[in-house]
Amino acid sequence: MSFIADKQTLEDLNLLGRFKPNSIYNLFCKIKTTGGDRLLERMFQQPLIDPAAINKRSATFRYFQERQLSFPFTNERFKLAENYLIMGGGTGLSVILKKKLNAFLNDDAYEKLRNGLAAAIDVLLAFRTFLQQLTDFADANAWRKILSQLSWLDNAHDLSIMTVARYDRQLRHTLRAEMETLLEGIYQLDVYIAVSDVARQRGFHYATALPAFPAMFHSTALRHPALNAGISNPVALSEESNVIFLTGANMAGKSTLMKSIGIAVYLAHMGFPVAAADMKFSVRDGLYSSINVPDNLNLGYSHFYAEVLRVKQVAAEVAAGKNLLVIFDELFKGTNVKDAYDATLAVTAAFARYHHCFFIISTHIIEVGHALASNPSLQFCYLPTLLEGTIPRYTYKLEEGITNDRHGMTIIENERILALLEG
DNA mismatch repair proteins mutS family domain location, by residue (predicted)? Predict the structure, then answer.
C-alpha cells in the first residue's frame, strides 16, 4: 500500500517538476549526480506510510544536516568514473587487445578505458576518505566492507597494461554488483547532503510521524516552504476537531495557507524536512485537494460539474474508510450563491462526521460558517484584511472566528474600474 496523491493534488500543490517555477521538487533538487536525481524523484513519487520508516529517513537527513558535510566528488570526475563502472565488464585479454589496437590502429578505446579506471580509483579513494566522517552512520558499514576488498587502491599509481587489465577485471567483472552498491550509496549521500543543506539554509524542521490512530496533526508555526519571508501560523487538528473552516477576503492568504498544510503533510510522509516547527502527525493513507479544478470541454463538463465530480471522488474514498487529509478551496464556486451555500453547508456537515479524516474547507460564503457554528467538529479560522484608509493590508496571521471583511468594492474603487467605464 502506498500514499495516495493523485495528479490533481500534485498539480494543486505544485509538488513535482524539476523545471516548474517554485515547484517543491525544484526547491530540493540541488543534486550533483543523475543517480541522485533519480532517487530524489522516486522519493517524491512514493511517500511513505509507515511511521518507523518515515522517522528513520527524517533522522538520516537530520544527521547530515548537523554535520554539514560537502559532497566529496567533482561532477566531471565522478561522471567519468560512473560511466566506466556501469559499462559492461571486459576480460584481461580484451584490455590487452585494446592496447594493441591503440598502438597499431590509433584506436583510443584503451585510453578511454584507462582514463575511466583512473577516475574510478580517484572516486573510490575519495569515498573511502569521506566515510571516515560517518563512523556512527550504520549504512556506511556495508560500503566500508566493500572498499576493504580493494587493498590495491593506495598503490594504484602506475597503471601499466597488466595492472589496468587486473584492476578492470576486478571492478567491472568480479565485484560488479559491489560497485553498483557503492554507486547507489553515493547517490544516497548526494540526496542526504543536498536535502539537508536546503533544510539548514531555509530554516526547515523535522516532523515526527505517529501511528494512524488517534488521528492528529499539530504544528506551532507552519508556513509555505517556497516563500523566504512566509508568515508562520499554528495549525492543529484532532479526531474531536477534524475540520478547519477557513474564511477571509481574496488575497488574504487562504489558498497559500491551505497549500502550506498540504505540502507539509506530503513532505512529512516522505521523511523530508518541513516548513513547520514542532510538527507531529498521525500517518495518513493519502491527500486530496480541490484548489484549481479545471473544466473539461471535451467531455462537456462545466466548472461546477467538475467540482461536483471531484467532491464525489473524495467522498467515495472517505466513505470507504481511508484516512485522508482533504483540502477544498472555495467549494462550489462555479454555481450561484444560493446553491453554493446549500451545497457547502451540506457537504461540510457530512464530511465532519468522519473523524478519522481531516478537512480544510475555505469559502467566501461566511453565512455557512454561522449556520455550522454549533458543530463541535469544526474550528473556525480566518485571515484578516485591514484597511489603512482605503488601502487593504493583509497580515496573513490566522485568527479564530469567521471574517466580517467585505472589502471587494473598496478594491474595485481603488482600481478606478467604474471611473474608466464612465469615461
Answer: 241-419
Query: 23-45, pLDDT tens digit by residue?
Result: 999 999 999 999 999 999 999 99
Q: How far apart are CA 280 and CA 293, in angstroms?
A: 30
Per residue in 165-202, pLDDT (tens digit) is 888 889 998 999 999 999 999 999 999 999 999 999 99
Residue entry with cell 522519493: 43
Cβ atoms of 355 and 323 closer than 8 Å? no
CA distance 159 to 153: 11
CATH architecture, domain 205-422: 3-Layer(aba) Sandwich (3.40)
User: What is the reported pTM?
Assistant: 0.91
The grid coordinates of residue 160 equal 601499466
Instruction: Say if residues 308 and 240 touch (Cβ distance below 8 Å).
Output: no
Residue ranges per structural domain of the chain: 75-199, 205-422
Total residues belonging to the chain: 423
Q: At a CB cut-off of 8 Å and minimum separation 6, what does 7 contact?
A: none
